[in-house]
Amino acid sequence: MNIADVLSSARATAEGIQWLLLSATSQEVLADQLRAILPAGAVVGPFRPTEVRFKPGRKITAYYDTFVDTESPKGHYVRPIAVTWGPNASADQPEETTPLVKIQAEAVHRGVAFPFQRLWKDFRDWTMHVSVSPLDARFNQLVRLSDPQHVRAMLAKTRLGESDRPPSNEYSVTPLKYRPGKGHVLRYDPLDAGAETVFAKLYIAEDRARVFRREDAARCFRVASTAAEWLEEQGGPAHCLRPLACVAADAVVLYPRAAGTPLCDFARRQVGDVATCLQRTGAALRTLHQMPVEAIGPLGPPHDFAAETRLIAKKGVHIPVILPQVGSAIEALLDRARELHEQLPQEPPTFTHGDLKSEHIWVAPDRLTMMDFDTVRLADPALDVGCFLADWQFWNVVSHQAGLEKPENFLAGYASGVPKERLMRARLYEATGLIKCAVRRVQLFEHDWASRVAGLVERSQVALNDLQLSLGMPAKRQSLMEVHEHETQRSLFSHPPSAGPVNSSCGSVVIDPGISTLATVLNGEELVKHLGALACSQRWGTPRASEFRVLKWHRADRCTFRVAFQTELVGKVYAIDRHDVHEVMEKISRSGFDQAAQYSIPQPVAYLPAVHLLLQEWVEGTSANEVFKQGDGPQSTEAAKRCARWLARFHALAPPVGPIAEVEKLLRQGERKCQLIAQADASLGGRCADLSERLRAAAPAPGSFPLCASQGDFWERQIIFANGRTVVLDWDDYDVADPARDVAHFIVSLEKLAGKHLASTRALDEAGGVFLRTYLEEGGEPRVPERLSFYKAAFWLRWWKNAIQTRAPGWRKLVEMMLDESFTSLARLGRG
Question: Do the Cβ atoms of 231 and 181 come closer than 8 Å?
Answer without folding.
Answer: no
